[in-house]
Structures are given as structure tokens and as C-alpha cells.
Amino acid sequence: MFEALEILPAGEMARRHAACRAHLARLAPEAGGLVVFSRLAIYYLTGTFGNGLLWLPMEGEPVLMVRKGIERARLESPLMTVVPFRSYGDVAGLCAEAGSPLSPVAAAEMAALPWNLATLFTSRVKDVRFVAGDMALAKAQAVKSPWELAKMRLCGERHNRAMTELLPGRLRPGMSEREVSHQVWEAFFELGHSGMVRMDAPGEEIFLGHVSAGDSGNYPSVFNGPLGLRGEHPAVPFMGYAGKVWKKGEPLSVDCGFALEGYVTDKTQVYWGGPEASIPDAVKSAHSFCMDVQAWTAENLKPGAIPSQIWEHCRAWAERAGFAEGFMGLGGNKVPFLGHGIGLVVDAWPVFAKGFDEPFEEGMVMAVEPKMGVPGVGMVGVENTFEVTATGSTCITGDAFGMIAVE
């Protein structure tokens, strides 16, 4: 009676399984397969947002075990084996019955389960030793297929249109941050935003993104990013504060992800309250430096480049140029990175940061976000999403990066 809204192509699913297996063979050669728990990782490997767990053996057919929604899973996924289950104690038997028994050593998506559930799972699956499998999954997801890239390019195109074409005519000084946030939502939803922007780091959340007027851009933040914000409330430190009004002579930083069919692009657009001629030289200089950093990074973001080396170059550049204090945040808001991978989640692997020494590959997609906290003013700078191609990188969220003056 029902038809799936979209079915993951069987070839695309097979490519993802092969990528996970290849990384697992290198990172955890003793493991005979990978157990996946998070619904998003299950979606990546099956095409359905499954409520349960997936066993991906190194050889043989994967087994998706579903607590609820088995009819939907069978509609959406090309996977052959989708079975119901009630308890972790059923897992070994179900895999054996399906012809893909659990291996004596198995990798697990360890970050996906809280301590209590992980303890329960390992107590019910007693004859298996588990090793970490999260990195194999992260590295497989980092390199996007043409199928994924088509979705992300469309997402980026709409993201740019919302930020640079729709919003400038709807914003004005005198609006509160909350009013600005509602205008962002309206523009995003008009263009098909799915409403859900996901984070990968345990406990990290996001709602719309950050809308920061004036000194809100330097307000203390617990979010792992350089842009400060007051947010809705201490319990919901996202979006924008109803009590903070964007005034003339202030920057307005809108750092909000756009989501389409599960995939996310990241972009920050800075608006200036008043005519362009009223922007102080110090603010212009700070924003210009951030654009220069983004341009240099985009030029050098190519297969074989090393994330940590790009970060160190830009960090040292900011220091030499006299921008060390505000680069990537002021005070406690300062972060030790320049950007991050992006796809099904905002904060994906890899990161432009110390310790990330594996080279970029064609098909990776990165958010590059050089920003500058200006004391007493707020935050300026840029963020855009770049696709790594064979010859360099291409911005998929537009090509105009200056501040937009709104009178």
C-alpha cells in the first residue's frame, strides 16, 4: 500500500559497505565485522533510519535487526536481511540464523551507546570481544560518492540563495536576534530545509545555528566553535536572544547549517547594520583577513594536502599579521581548529587541526571557517563548504564572501 520516499541505490549501499570493510581491515584487522547502533550510521549503511542495530560482517550478508518500524525498513532499504528483535540477548542467534554469525572479535560503534546500554549489550553477547570501530565508520563517511555530492551541491546552492538573496531584504537593524532567527527559518524552509541539523560529538546539540548581533558574537559559549552567542536561554543556548537587538553600527553573524535529504552544508554570513561606508577600518581589516585565509585554504585544499599543516600555516599567519588575539574566537571562545568535515553531521572527520595528519582525498567535503572576534564589536569572518576535487577545491555555498550592508 505504501511506497518509499527514496530508496538507497543498491550500488551506493555496496560501495559504503566496501569502504567500511576496507577501513576496518586496516584499523582493526582482528575484527570479523562491525556492529552499528546509532540510527544515523544505520541510515548511512542501509538507507533507513533504523531503530535497532546492524551487523556488517567482513564477509557475507549484513543483518539489520529492528525493534520497531520493520515495514518501513523493508520499504526503504535494499538490504536483503531485515529481521525483528526484542533484546540484545537475541542478537547472536539472529545473526547465526541469517547465515552471518558474529565473529569472536567484532568492532563496535562505541560512541553510539551510553555506558549503561554498552554494559548491557556486552553482558548479553558474552562470547564476543569488542574493539573500537568508530574511526572506520567516520573515514568511510568522509569520502562522498557522486550520489552524495549531488545532494550536498543542491543543499549548498539553496543555502547560499537563502543567505545572500532572500535574507538581506528581510533583515533590518532594530530586529532582535530571535526575530532574525525566525527570518532565517522562514527563508530556509521556503527552500526545502529539512529542519534537522545533526551533530556527532556525544552530547553536542544544535538548533538552527548561531544568530549573534554585536557583542553576542563574543559572548561566552559552550558550543565547540568560535562564534559566541547568547541564545534563547541557558537551557537552549542556540538561535538568538529575544532581548538582544541588532543595532546600527554592529555586525550580525548568522552561522546556520542548511539540511537537505539528510546532508548538511555550513555557511556563515556577516551582515552590517548600516551603509558599507560606516564599517570601521578595524572591522573591515579583520573580515578581509578571514576572506584571505579562506581563499588560501581553498586553493591548497586538494588531494594529498595535510589538514594539520593547513591549520598551522593559518594560525601562524594570524599571529604574524597581528590577529592572534581574535583569530578563531576571543578568550575562552577560541578554538584550535580552522574547520571540519561535514556531511550527515556538521562535525564530521577530519578536522583542520593539530594531529590530523592523514591527507585529504577527492570527494571529501570540508567546512572552512576563519573567524575573528573583535573586542567591543562582535565577530566577523566567513564560513563556507568546499568539495575536494582532483584539481583542488570548489565552494558549494556561493562565491561572494564580503559583509552584506543592511540599512
UniProtKB/TrEMBL annotation:
Species per Swiss-Prot/TrEMBL record: Fundidesulfovibrio magnetotacticus
Keyword annotations: Dipeptidase, Hydrolase, Protease
The EC number(s) this enzyme carries: 3.4.13.-
UniProt cross-references to InterPro entries, sorted A to Z: Creatin/AminoP/Spt16_N, Creatinase/aminopeptidase-like, Creatinase_N, Pept_M24, Peptidase_M24B
Entry protein name: Putative dipeptidase PepE
Domain of life: Bacteria
Molecular-function annotations in GO: dipeptidase activity
Lineage: Bacteria, Pseudomonadati, Thermodesulfobacteriota, Desulfovibrionia, Desulfovibrionales
Domain spans labelled Peptidase M24: 151-390
Gene3D superfamilies hit by this protein: Creatinase/methionine aminopeptidase superfamily, Creatinase/prolidase N-terminal domain
Gene: pepE
Pfam families: Creatinase_N (PF01321), Peptidase_M24 (PF00557)
Creatinase N-terminal domain: residues covered: 18-134
